[in-house]
Amino acid sequence: MNRVRNTRATNATRIAFGLLLLAIISASLFPGVSRPTIFASDKMDHIFAFFVLGSAAKFFWQGHRPITLFSLLALGGAGIEIVQWGMQAGREADWADFAADLFGAGVGILMADTINAIRTRLFGPAYL
């Protein structure tokens, strides 16, 4: 029974991460005028989006090394910028956006890794 419950929880977290990733990619590829924003600064939007992705990735895949997750998110950020480079709908690729993606992902992964370590030390291993 525990194995079935853990499998369902694992599948649910993977689906949740996939939906989160899809939402961030979609928001990144909206045309320039109608793109959704959270902050006044475009760079803060990038930092926030990849902070959320990085922390979610580390919480959902606790067994993976942080550098692996960071590398995958870096590839995703680079992919978004490459797609934006080829778009004609008011979106432009920007090295500063990519740097903001890397910063947000790194801080998110480190924060989640620290929280996981503290939680494990206090309460034992967690099962998602």
Written account of the structure:
The relative contact order is 0.16. The mean pLDDT is 86. The chain is mainly alpha-helical. The protein has one domain. The two termini are 15 Å apart. Helix 3 runs antiparallel to helix 4 (95-123). The protein has four helices and no strands. It is elongated, with a radius of gyration of 16 Å. This is VanZ family protein. Keywords: Membrane, Plasmid, Transmembrane, Transmembrane helix. The chain crosses the membrane at residues 12-32, 44-61, 68-86, 98-118.
Summarize the SSE layout with pairings.
Elements: H1 2-28, H2 42-60, H3 66-86, H4 95-123
Helix pairs in contact: 1-2, 2-3, 2-4, 3-4
Protein name: VanZ family protein
Transmembrane segments: 12-32, 44-61, 68-86, 98-118
Organism: Erythrobacter aureus
Q: What fraction of residues sit in β-strands? A: under 5%
Helix and strand succession?
HHHH
Helix content, binned percent: over 70%
Total strand count, please? 0
Measured between the Cα atoms of the first and last residue, the distance is: 15 Å
Instruction: Write down the Rg.
Output: 16 Å
Please identify the structural class as seen in this structure: mainly alpha
Question: Largest sheet, described in full?
Answer: none
Oligomer: single chain
Number of helices, where a helix is a run of at least 4 consecutive DSSP H or I residues:
4
Average per-residue pLDDT, rounded, comes to 86
Question: What general outline do the C-alpha atoms trace?
Answer: elongated
The number of distinct structural domains comes to 1
Low-confidence spans: pLDDT under 50, at least 5 residues? none
